[in-house]
Amino acid sequence: MRTGLTGIREMHAAEIIDDRTMTAWEDVASGDSSRIARGNADLLRREQEYCVGTLWDQCRGYKNGVGEALTYMTTLAGSPSVAGVPALREFRPVKFTTDVAGAGKTEVQLGIPSWDWSIFSERWTFVTSELLPRYTYQAKHDRAALNRQLTTPYEQLWNQSRPLYNIPRILASTVNATKVKPAG
Question: Does 169 have pLDDT greater than 90?
Answer without folding.
Answer: no
